[in-house]
Amino acid sequence: GRAMTNPSTDASLQAADDRHDRHFRTDHLMADLKGRSVRGGAVTLTAQGVKFVLQMGSTMILARLLTPSDFGLVAMVTAVTGFVAMFKDAGLSMATVQREQITHAQVSTLFWTNAALSVFVMLVVAALAPLLAWFYGEPRLVWITLALSATFIFGGLTVQHQALLRRQMRFTALAVTEIGSMAAGIATAIIIAWRGFGYWALVGLTAGSTIANCAIVWALSGWLPGRPRKGSGVRDMLKFGGGLTGFNFLNYFTRHADNVIIGYALGSASLGIYSKAYGLVNMPIQQINAPVSHVMVPSLSRLQGEPNRYRRAFLHAIGMLAFVGMPAVGLLFAVADEVVALVLGGGWEDAATVFRFLAPGALLGTVNVAPGWLCVSLGRARVQLVWAAIAAPVMVMTFVAGTHWGISGVAAGFSASWCALFILFAAMACRKSPVSFVQLVSCLVTPFVACVIATVASMGVVRLAFPPEAPVAGTLAASGVLFIATYVSVCLSLPSGRRQARALLRDGIGALSASKAQETS
Q1: CA dihedral for 330, 335, 341, 347, sign (positive or negative)
Q2: What distance in Å separates the CA atoms of residue 198 and residue 334, rounded to the nearest whole number?
Q3: What pTM value is reported for the model?
Q4: CA angle centred on 150, ends 245 and 261, rounded to 5°
Q5: pLDDT at position 290, please?
Q6: CA-to-CA distance for 487 and 481, rounded, in angstroms?
Q7: 407 Cβ contact partners less than 8 Å away, ≥ 6 residues apart
Q8: If 413 and its partner were Cys, which of 359, 402, 441, 467 is the partner (CB 3.0–4.6 Å)?
Q9: 213: helix, coil or strand?
């Protein structure tokens, strides 16, 4: 027979859905989606600039208070804990952002799913502590791992709140959350390092930022989860999240296997140098790609039913990423020695060589979000999973082979294999999407060519004009001026470069006008 239902219960559940509806609706975004995206991009990039200053400042301070071995010890743990931590999300944040329609019951059910997963992850990481200490032959890793495991519960409690802010394109709230939590973590780390507790400062960095992030995002979101409900319609979302988690699982393994292999084969000091070089060369990518992705994934998800608008928005955003990101990596390649000396200080000279070997991979890495945007916004997590299954064994074998030449060999192997695999991923993601592979490549050619020419010119002229003993600040200033002048000149000499420059200027003016309008309203 038919199951009996309680009308009063159904009515109360519907009332709860209606009361929370403002957190889930997106129809009001469509009237000015481009404007919201531009304004959101401006807010997010401004916040990223603040975070960049905080990150650089903290790196310069902590690199002088701590040793490469301190960084290497924590990197040994975070290479593994970060891998396990992805399961607390289980791809469900993107499921919330990407879905066209969603309810309070569904998000509440996903919230409790994430909370349960975060507890499970915390217990798994804690159980791994003695195993990690045995694997690396380093007893201090036991307490580092146990301390970091406790932070996962706070991360799991914020997954859906942050997803709702992103879905609603509330980028100011997200920016406040990110800056506030980063500042809290940095302050905690500097205090601990100043008191002479060594590597515990880096543990405090993670713990302080994670706890602060949880407190701030709950305060700003305004959404309170209800009870989980059976039959709330989360099956498809869990399936999407499962495919995305499978990709993240393999991709994280691929991107962090180098840390595990270096730590095991070459030791904590080598890993410390490699990890700091990797962090520096990827800094421009992190400062640009992550905030732009936070804007573009929800924007493209809203456009998945309009292929022409989708294509224009996608190519415009990727072209802007390449136009800004590629020269940043090229300039860092040209002045790697000076950057390492300025940021890290003495004792880190080997990081400059590793830095340069990683740079070719980082150059394409400036647009590494392109295939992911296509797959996530169009709900095609399986394509990502298939690519990751191909990439993982290729990258790991490259890393193992590279250890015969030390950390520089691993870095060179990373760049070579990543470039080839990225091209494959882009071709797979473009297939049966509104964007063709040729269209994607076409918007990257001009910034790539201009970047290569500017890098060669900057290295050649400045090296001839400035001897090795010249002041670092003077070399950096001269290199920067020459690089920017060459890059801009080459871009403006080409029709496609002029179009991208005009588009970038137009977006900048639009964002500035929108910000002024908000201030006066």
Answers
A1: positive
A2: 33
A3: 0.65
A4: 60
A5: 74
A6: 10
A7: 262, 266, 270, 273, 274, 350, 354
A8: 402
A9: helix
